[in-house]
Specification:
Oligomer: heterodimer
Largest sheet of chain A: 4 strands, antiparallel
Number of domains of chain A: 2
CATH class of the largest domain in chain A: Alpha Beta
Family (chain A): Belongs to the P(II) protein family.
Strand content of chain B: under 5%
Pfam families (chain A): P-II
Strand order of the largest sheet of chain A: 2-5-1-6
Distance between the termini of chain A: 27 Å
Keywords (chain A): Nucleotide-binding, Phosphoprotein, Transcription, Transcription regulation
Strand content of chain A: 25-35%
Order of helices and strands of chain A: HHHEHEEEEHE
Low-confidence stretches of chain A: 1-19, 27-43
CATH class of chain B: Mainly Alpha
Shape of chain B: globular
Subunit structure (chain A): Homotrimer.
CATH superfamily of chain B: Ammonium transporter AmtB like domains
Protein name (chain A): Nitrogen regulatory protein P-II
Number of helices of chain A: 5
């Protein structure tokens, strides 16, 4: 039971936010942990969404995400290559390859139940239809904690 | 120029009491001579501090065109070289360059040794002796500034400064004495008004020697022969530096009229200002259009080089040309910069800021074309003068660099170069922003 609960997406319909485990459940999960088994109740609560998008789309994506109730995100300017690969530029008469293309990386930690909506919103807003629009990854988060209060997991978001 | 306009009546006022006192004893000419003395000295002083400001221009241009890990070092070198030039030019430079009649150690070739004295002979012939020294000193420092840009990002601090001592104490004063000190080049009719050859090509030749001895930066030329561009850290600083140089050049060329006490001289200074400005603008526009046409995008760093190449081109003769001729001369200077920057790369001579195209090659163009607008110059003599100074400066610089390389070493180690000279040689960064609160 514990193991099954831990495996994530297929364990329950996405539309149904996972209810906070009762004290009894908590005790049970802790026993699982003590037995050295993977115990995924935390992973089931919270998802990490990593998205790489075109830099000029950042503001539009941010507005769309706050519009659906996202309350925080981390943004990093990155460079990388994918199927878009690079292009060439000229500096002082010498041609050079730009092997890494600038992108913006978004990292959002959201309640699992919101994950699909967030993914759809990012995909819908960041899409230009041209090569290099980016990618989105969804990961389980083992644990989340708000530093100020010590709240964990979904409460910490 | 506004300053000069407002100060001219003031100068006349100062002279007035003497005018009254001397009315009976001396002719009015005495007051006129004093006014001339004041205005001539003022031209030297204003010109001098404008040329001084070019040191800031070079520092900003170079700081912007090196990578951020080498910015502190580049600034340090610029402070060091200017200050050393100031001391060396006093200690031996000035008297090697201006020995005066009968004082040459080798007549017309090498002047006299000794520190410059500004307390005696205050009136050096219609201007203040000290104002002349101050003005000439700045040209010496400019020559050294040119070298540091080319050799950036890989040369050690102290060996570089040791070269600056030789350059500003001996090399520059010697070749400049051949022309401005009344030496052999001036006697055969060479013409270089403000120093396309004497200052700029000299700096360029020393830079060329340095670049050859040093070798290119790690990673600049790939094994398969490709040129790998190394973009600079801050084009805003590079642009500010270029505008500062442009401003300073008014003093460089205008001050080289050496007199402003008569209507003719005042007008000449004004014409020089206008021509100097025109040549810079033409060089910038030429580079802007040319890079757009050749590469599909305008390259700002080339536009900066183009403006400076225009300035160098007009420096050998900023007075004789009409504005249209100044436009042609400066514009071709800009074209030269755009074509010779990649040419040097093909020759695997790594010139970080483009000083060799701008100062040496445009310097040749400016020196050569003097004969177009100045009837007293000839193309042949211009080439002889340029070649003589170029050969002398290049050979002596090359030897000095080789000696430094063999003794104390000229270049930092591979790891130091990759980590950046700021941390390796100085232990401080220009932009220490990460995790320092």
């Amino acid at each position: 039971m514990c193991k099954k609960y831990a495996t994530g997406p297929e364990s329950g319909p996405e539309s149904d936010p996972h209810p906070s485990p009762s004290p009894l459940w908590r005790a049970f999960f802790c026993m699982c942990e003590m037995q050295g088994q993977a115990c995924g109740v935390k992973g089931k609560d919270v998802r990490l969404i990593i998205a790489t998008i075109k830099p000029f789309k950042l503001e539009e994506v941010r507005e769309a995400l706050t519009g659906i109730g996202v309350r925080g995100m981390m943004v990093t300017e990155i460079k990388g290559f994918g199927s878009q690969s690079g292009h060439t530029e000229i500096y002082r008469g010498a041609e050079y390859a730009v092997n890494f293309v600038p992108k913006v990386k978004l990292e959002l930690v959201v309640p699992a139940g919101m994950a699909d909506q967030v993914v759809e919103t990012i995909a819908g807003t960041a899409k230009t239809g041209k090569i290099g629009d980016g990618k989105i990854f969804v990961l389980d988060v083992a644990q989340a904690m708000r530093v100020r209060t010590g709240e964990t997991n979904e409460d910490a978001i | 120029m506004n300053l000069i306009k407002t100060l001219a009546p003031a100068a006349a006022l100062i002279a007035l009491p003497q005018l009254g006192l001397a009315q009976e004893a001396a002719p009015e000419g005495a007051a006129a001579a004093q006014t001339q003395f004041i205005l001539n000295s003022l031209l030297f002083l204003v010109g001098g501090f404008l040329v001084f400001w070019m040191a800031a221009g070079f520092a900003m241009l170079e700081a912007g065109l090196v990578r951020s890990k080498n910015v502190t070092m580049q600034l340090t070198k610029n402070m060091g070289l200017f200050s050393l030039a100031a001391i060396m030019y006093w200690l031996i430079g000035y008297n090697i360059m201006y020995p005066g009649d009968g004082n040459w150690i080798i007549e017309g070739v090498f002047g006299t040794i000794g520190p410059k004295d500004i307390k005696s002979d205050i009136d050096a012939g219609g201007y203040s002796n000290a104002s002349d020294f101050f003005f000439q000193l700045m040209f010496c420092a400019t020559t050294a500034s040119i070298v540091s840009g080319t050799m950036a990002e890989r040369v050690k601090l102290w060996p570089f400064l040791a070269f600056v001592v030789v350059l500003t104490g001996v090399i520059y004063p010697t070749e400049a004495s051949w022309q401005w000190g009344g030496g052999w080049l001036s006697q055969i009719g060479f013409a270089d008004f403000a120093g396309s050859t004497l200052v700029h090509a000299t700096g360029g030749f020393a830079a060329l020697a340095g670049a050859l001895v040093l070798g290119p930066r790690i990673g600049k030329y790939a094994k398969d022969g490709r040129v790998v561009p190394i973009p600079g850290s801050n084009l805003a600083l590079a642009t500010l530096g270029t505008f500062i140089l442009w401003l300073g050049w008014f003093g460089f060329n205008g001050g080289s009229q050496l007199a402003m006490g008569t209507l003719e001289d005042a007008d000449a200074v004004a014409q020089i200002f206008a021509n100097t400005n025109m040549a810079a603008a033409a060089g910038a526009v030429a580079a802007m259009v040319l890079t757009q046409v050749m590469y599909g995008k305008t390259d700002l760093t080339m536009v900066l080089n183009g403006a400076l190449a225009g300035l160098v081109s007009i420096t050998a003769e900023p007075l004789a040309p009409s504005l249209f001729q100044a436009l042609i001369i400066g514009g071709i200077g800009g074209v030269i910069a755009v074509f010779t920057v990649p040419m040097l790369d093909r020759m695997r001579i790594d010139d970080v800021v483009g000083a060799i195209p701008v100062h040496l090659i445009a310097g040749f163009w400016g020196t050569f074309i003097v004969a177009w607008t100045n009837d007293e110059a000839s193309f042949v003599t211009q080439i002889i003068g340029f070649a003589a100074i170029g050969a002398f400066v290049f050979v002596v610089s090359y030897v000095v660099f080789m000696i430094l390389k063999a003794t104390v070493g000229l270049r930092v180690g591979e790891e130091e170069e990759i980590n950046g000279l700021d941390m390796a040689e100085l232990g401080m960064e220009a932009y220490p922003e990460f995790a320092k609160g």
